[in-house]
Specification:
Helices cover 30% and strands 18% of the residues. The protein is built from nine helices and ten strands. It has a five-stranded mixed β-sheet with strand order 3-2-1-4-5, sandwiched between helices. Strands 9-8-7-6-10 form a five-stranded antiparallel β-sheet, with no helix packed on it. The radius of gyration is 26 Å and the shape is elongated.
Length: 329
Amino acid sequence: MNSDLTNHISKCDICSSYQSHQAREPLISHEVADRPWQKIGADVFTLDSSDYLCVVDYYSSYFEIDRLETKTAKGIAKILRKQFSVHGIPNQLISDSMPFMYQEFREFAASYEFKVITSSPGYPQSDGKAENAIKTAKSIMKKANHAGTDPYLSLLDWRNTPSEGMSSSPAQRMFGRRTRTLLPTTSYQLKPKVQEDVKEKLFKQKSKQAKYYNQNTKELPPLQTGEVVRVAPKPGDRERKWFKARVEDQVDIRSYEVRTEDGRLYRRNRRHLRQSKEPFGQTSEPVQCDYRRKTTLAQLPPQLNQYDPSLLVNQSKTTLLVNLSKRNL
């Protein structure tokens, strides 16, 4: 009886449209880089009506901030060409989808021979390194502007400040030396020196982060091509309504392409996709739990036809099963 009722509710259009978010999955950390500028992250942000490109090195946490003339693939490629001429060409660039997935940027990456890895839209955690760098940059720039000081000197000071859990600064890990600031320092402290055990310390940091993050997490089962799912709404969506789609392909770890009934294609992280038993692509009226308005007794499972359907209106699945149990169903 309970299984029949659970199966019926799982096909309810309204119940599937309004759901809570799924639990976090265990953290998958990026592989620790072997050297500076081997792997970089990039993202665009806006501050005081101006657009900026932030590029951060995964090995040293050193980041560059450049003002963008335009937020197009061409404008971003122009900035990256300048940075690559200074620091060299990376092996990988990790970013969100837009505009790094555009053909123009793909052609730039192919000509410079580096790989572009994009994250699922609405899941900035995949590019957390760039997100954290932007958070730091915004804080520094806002404080400098408010105080009326030079933000570039503030960024210079931050780059020469030892990182938490490390015995070196981003500049030392990036360049193998401190860079001169307005703070008094000796010539000896500015001499080049290779930083030891950087990779080991970074690995230790990631292990500690994963230990705390993975508490109360749950691994979600992988999705199969053709499986029907409900897609979580975007954070700014006022309706907060999950919409129906079907899995087209798995494009990366925990990342899938799904297509809606009207043909639109989306890419989403597994956490934003909930498995559904609903029919897909059918024109018949969807099943709903408000039986007084949408569903007749004939549409209920046979075991429920003899009971009062008013018990089922606007109740969660848990409450529903409890109430039916009390009626000796």
